[in-house]
Amino acid sequence: MEINRMKPRKTILFILLTVLLAVLFVADLSFGSIRIPFGEAMNVLFGASSDTINTEILLNFRLPKAITAILAGASLSVAGLMMQTLFRNPLAEPYILGVSSGASLGVALVMMASAVLPAVFISSGWGMILAAVIGAALVLLLVVGVSFKVQNSVSLLIVGIMFGTIASSLVGVLQYFSNPDAIKLFIMWNMGSLSAVTWEYLQILVPTILTGLLLAIILTKRLNGLLLGENYARGLGIPILQTRVLIVTATGILAGAITAFTGPIAFVGVAIPHIARGIFRTAKHQLLMPACVLLGASLILICDIISQIPTHTLPINTISALFGAPVIIWIILKRK
Question: Which pLDDT value is given to residue 6?
Answer without folding.
Answer: 54
